[in-house]
Amino acid sequence: MNGNGRNVGPDEDPLWYKDAILYELHVRAFLDSNADGMGDFRGLAQKLDYLQDLGVTALWLLPFSPSPWRDDGYDISDYTDVHPAYGTLRDFERFLNEAHRRGLRVITEIVVNHTSDQHPWFQRARRSPPGSRWRDFYVWSDRPDKYKDARIIFKDFETSNWAWDPVANAYYWHRFYSHQPDLNFDSPYVRQAVKEIADFWLEMGVDGFRLDAIPYLYEREGTNCENLPETHQYLRELRQYIDAKHPGRMLLAEANQWPEDAIAYFGAGDECNMAFHFPLMPRLFMAIRMEDRFPILEIMEQTPAIPPNCQWAIFLRNHDELTLEMVTDDERDYMYRVYAHDRQMRINLGIRRRLAPLLGNDRRKIELMNALLFSMPGTPVIYYGDEIGMGDNIYLGDRNGVRTPMQWSADRNAGFSRANPQKLYLPIIIDPAYHYEAINVEGQQNNPHSLLWWMKHLIEQRKQFKALGRGTLEFLRPSNRKVLAFFRRYEDEILLVVANLSRFPQHVELDLGAVNGMTPVELFGRAEFPPIGDQCWPISIGTYGYFSFAL
Ligand code: GLC
Predict the structure, then answer these.
(1) How many CB atoms lie within 10 A of CB 237?
(2) Which of 74, 109, 214, 217 best tests ligand 1's pocket when mutated (most atoms within 8 Å of CB)?
(3) pTM score, whole prediction
(4) Do 479 and 467 form a contact (C-beta atoms < 8 A)?
(5) 212 CA distance to ligand 1 centroid (A)?
(6) pLDDT tens-place string over residues 323-375
(7) Residue 357 burial (CB count, 10 A)
(8) Å from CA of 13 to ligand 1 middle
(9) Residues 6+ away with beta carbon under 8 Å from 35
(10) What ligand 1 atom has the least distance to the C-alpha of 75?
């Protein structure tokens, strides 16, 4: 325990996030304890044993504060409380303590680029005189033609980043939905308010924050209003403030940017501790579909080194669409063609599907993609339900198709809730191929050959080797491009990873000169291999095969 009553287990390493395995979940989707059709903190607390058994080390919770829920909670109307449907602050604290007692860290969200238009700050701003402190909490204009170079993010829903407010008699700026007015970070009161929100949750004991939509905090004429120097300046200030008061916590940037812009969020190790690697994700999907390692090599080679105390967060899927902002136009066309042939699967600049359906429910492909996720540089993030291969529902609106209730068992409502099935916040998946009666935790717990057990094994393996979280990456370049092979090294650990991206078995000769004479110990895979000699190492790998060796 430390001074804040936090007990995060034996591991007090300030760089804990480098060895972490994150699990992203929505309280609403996990377990409903009071039969109102919606998950809540008491329900989530009951499932901590499951998460501990799965082996993940940190939970990332989607926003759970009071909200009119027009953007699934990313439209916050009170930053320092819990939405009554999810319970009380006391329930949250109990959950947090229970998680910490099991050595599980908890990361929440700071969504401060914007608020809900229902937030009292906005209600006060629109009624306050122009130029006043309260009015200036938001970004106003008499004309909707300022900052024309800023792109529209929710292209399917919005036509402008300005919206007219008849109460204020002025336009207000919004980067997302028009009911989400952007806060004005030029206001010192806004900057101070954000620090107070951070203090509130950190004092309670949360281990870190995902910083939602962080590139868009400031607006400046003549720029695209992303990644501005002012944003980085504020992040340095926020980091200093948090480090001084609450050491050992973690800031994770949601910056959907090219690698060179994304690394700017690490600063010189003095901004965010972590940032998502957005461009890698679609390239993993491209590589496995094209049966060619090129997209992965290309993006990793364009990824600059990061400060030693920083870490990428890598992922296959999350609660949003599989975003295709960080690919070229040709690549996007390709991704749509092969992964979203039905128009219904597309939204904004992306694809609203879960992992298993994207991969045609092909168990070998699902395993390979997860294995890559767990062996590329960075901390892996698992999206809830993907550990059992849950399906999606592309006929639900917005991104709801990937946000349906967790499937615990073949019981009513998949064991998620005792409510009338019609009362659930979203319907359970009943698509014949992914029906909850077949795809659920209980069924998979009872079958040692299930995806769930395979994932547990993968997670367990990852924990044995620091090189996976912290090591360098060195690609091998065998002539067969369908094979991806690389070393991960950290101190005296050397791991060799070999993956067949093809649907046919492949033969490959690996030049392992650098580790000549070593004996490979197979960690994960399916076959036996000859020892490493001074010549090229010839191996054959089955369809979508994956091996990792410790040398
Ligand atoms: C982030 C979230 C997304 C949300 C948006 C606006 O991109 O991931 O779900 O809609 O911010 O808050």
Answers:
(1) 14
(2) 74
(3) 0.96
(4) no
(5) 7
(6) 999 999 999 999 999 999 999 999 999 999 999 999 999 999 999 999 999 99
(7) 22
(8) 30
(9) 417, 418, 419
(10) 12
